[in-house]
């Protein structure tokens, strides 16, 4: 047995950023020589020659099961790669003990916990040295053999090539046999609310998905015994290839809810890359990649790449070209890369946006009182702030309005300036901020406009501009808004108009009170009535 050719890749440490050094591709024989005679498993280090002409790496890892995965690993390999060493570069570390400990946020060696300076090309895991890579591969092999022993039948049935991989989600008989009211009851109890047509039933157990054995194993290893509610509903829908917009609390398992269908789709896809996960922040991207790697462990040809800012670009670009299946990126870095390289991204089948506030930020809805105002303000916003803005009013044709509405739902606009008349057509849009640039002429209209935010129990903000043009509504506004705890400007609270309206209202109330027939004033009213009658 020999160690297959492998590509040793240096992890881009933060300090690499200072000198702009790319990750290392070490073809150095010296490492092997330096390991000679020592009781340490080493590795053959080669460059891109390790890939087959079609661009795939020469490892043979069938999907969907663990059979044969990384089977040919073991001890020192005699094959050396190209000999062009890079004297200026630091040699790949042979021993774990020569590696430093990881700083917070840095990758950690899966074997010893030191700084995971390199990425194992076979498993995509972080390793600190040749020693830990070899140990890690042995562990993987042992794990696979155990799996094979525990499920020999299944392992034998695994197809030989990932290109043959084929997955169709079918409802498990257990789920199929449930009564409709049982399913509804379950959803109610778990707080699962769905919209959309013919949404498939939730699963109750990961076993109901028919995942490859290795994936089931990884789920168990990660401590995922049963799916969380968002996973129960989202995974089967995702496995059916449907588009999903999902919302659940932080920490409720959303990442795995979208990762699992992405993994299955990417497994069945021979093109690379085949999945793109966009996240708004680097931290989130790192977290998602970590979870993806845990779930992908032992699955063939399922490399991931992290494309995020704040880390050197060349290693990321290099990694992207290594036939990775899943890209986890922040939008800014992805754009940088797309500008700089001709990386083929057309193969992407699934685009998942996880809490991407930048791309799917709900628009700001601004209400004005006339069409001209809507057009002028929209243009001004776009010019001055650079935000994508659109006006919507009754002078726009039905087709235009429909397009705008679609654009809004697709997240094409960041600001919408609308006349009040059309505010009602925008019921569908979820917004976080409403600006009443012109105060509407009635309280009813005002309440309707402000009600565009904070729908479905969400928080939202409304900012209202008022001047003396709406002075007749001052007291009504104060009465309506004050109880919500909102801040009212002193100019409004101290306005003589407001006090005048308040006084008038109180007088009116007193009068109404007087006119009311009560037990106390009943006799007075009768006497008054009799008196006026007798006078007649
Ligand atoms: P998330 O909401 O995706 O950030 O997940 C929160 C945490 O829950 C992460 O640490 C996950 O690893 C973990 N997790 C996700 N799904 C499950 C599950 N089904 N069972 C146990 N832990 C889970």
Secondary-structure-based class equals alpha/beta
Instruction: Specify the helix fraction band.
Output: 25-40%
The tally of strands reads 12
Strand order of the largest sheet: 9-10-8-11-12
**What compounds are bound to the protein?**
adenosine monophosphate
What overall form do the CA principal axes indicate? elongated
Distance between the termini: 125 Å
Mean pLDDT rating? 75
- Using only C-alpha atoms, the radius of gyration works out to 33 Å
Low-confidence segments, ≥5 residues, pLDDT <50? 1-88, 153-164, 346-355
Sheet with the most strands, sense and barrel status: 5 strands, parallel
Describe the structure.
- This protein is an alpha/beta fold and 536 residues long.
- It is built from 20 helices and twelve strands.
- The protein has a five-stranded parallel β-sheet, sandwiched between helices. A four-stranded parallel β-sheet has the order 5-6-4-7, sandwiched between helices.
- β11, α16 and β12 form a beta-alpha-beta unit.
- α9 packs across α10.
- It is elongated and about 115 Å long.
- The N and C termini lie far apart (125 Å).
């Amino acid at each position: 047995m020999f160690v297959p050719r492998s590509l040793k890749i240096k992890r881009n440490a933060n300090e690499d950023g200072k000198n702009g050094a790319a990750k290392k591709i070490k073809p150095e024989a010296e490492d092997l020589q330096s390991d000679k005679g020592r009781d340490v498993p080493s590795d053959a280090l080669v460059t891109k020659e390790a890939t087959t002409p079609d661009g795939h790496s020469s490892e043979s890892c069938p999907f969907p099961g663990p059979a044969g995965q990384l089977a040919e690993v073991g001890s020192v390999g005699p094959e050396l790669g190209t000999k062009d060493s890079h004297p200026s570069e630091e040699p790949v570390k042979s021993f774990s003990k020569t590696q430093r400990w990881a700083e917070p946020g840095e990758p950690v060696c899966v074997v010893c916990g030191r700084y995971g300076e390199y990425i194992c090309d076979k498993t995509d895991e972080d390793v600190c040295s040749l020693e830990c890579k070899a140990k890690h591969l042995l562990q993987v092999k042992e794990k696979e053999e155990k799996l094979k022993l525990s499920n020999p039948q299944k392992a034998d049935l695994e197809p030989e090539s990932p290109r043959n991989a084929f997955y169709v989600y079918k409802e498990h008989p257990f789920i199929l046999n449930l009564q409709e009211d049982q399913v509804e009851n379950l959803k109610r109890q778990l707080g699962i609310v769905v919209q959309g047509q013919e949404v498939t039933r939730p699963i109750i157990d990961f076993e109901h998905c028919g995942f490859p054995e290795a994936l089931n194993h990884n789920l168990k290893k990660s401590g995922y015994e049963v799916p969380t509610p968002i996973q129960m509903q989202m995974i089967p829908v995702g496995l059916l290839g449907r588009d999903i917009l999902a919302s659940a609390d932080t920490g409720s398992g959303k990442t795995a809810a979208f990762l699992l269908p992405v993994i299955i789709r990417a497994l069945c896809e021979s093109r690379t890359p085949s999945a793109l996960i966009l996240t708004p922040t680097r931290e989130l991207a790192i977290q998602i990649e970590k979870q993806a790697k845990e779930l992908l462990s032992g699955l063939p040809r399922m490399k991931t790449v992290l494309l995020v800012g704040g880390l050197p670009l060349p290693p990321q670009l290099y990694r992207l070209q290594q036939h990775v299946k899943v890209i986890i990126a922040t939008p800014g870095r992805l754009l940088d890369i797309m500008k700089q390289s001709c990386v083929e991204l057309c193969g992407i089948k699934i685009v998942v946006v996880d809490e991407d506030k930048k791309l799917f930020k709900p628009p700001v809805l601004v209400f004005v009182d006339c069409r001209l105002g809507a057009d002028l303000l929209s243009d001004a916003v776009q010019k001055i702030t650079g935000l994508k803005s659109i006006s919507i009013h009754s002078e726009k044709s039905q087709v235009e309005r429909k397009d705008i509405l679609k654009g809004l739902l697709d997240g094409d606009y960041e600001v919408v300036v609308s006349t009040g008349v059309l505010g009602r057509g925008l019921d569908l849009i979820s917004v976080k901020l409403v600006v009443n640039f012109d105060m509407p002429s009635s309280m009813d209209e005002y309440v309707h406009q402000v009600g565009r935010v904070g729908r479905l129990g969400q928080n939202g903000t409304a900012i209202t501009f008022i001047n003396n043009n709406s002075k007749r509504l001052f007291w009504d506004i104060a009465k309506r808004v004050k109880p919500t705890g909102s801040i009212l400007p002193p100019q409004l609270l101290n306005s003589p108009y407001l006090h005048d309206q308040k006084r008038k209202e109180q007088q009116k109330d007193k009068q109404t009170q007087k006119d009311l027939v009560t037990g106390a004033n009943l006799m007075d009213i009768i006497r008054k009535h009799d008196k006026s009658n007798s006078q007649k």
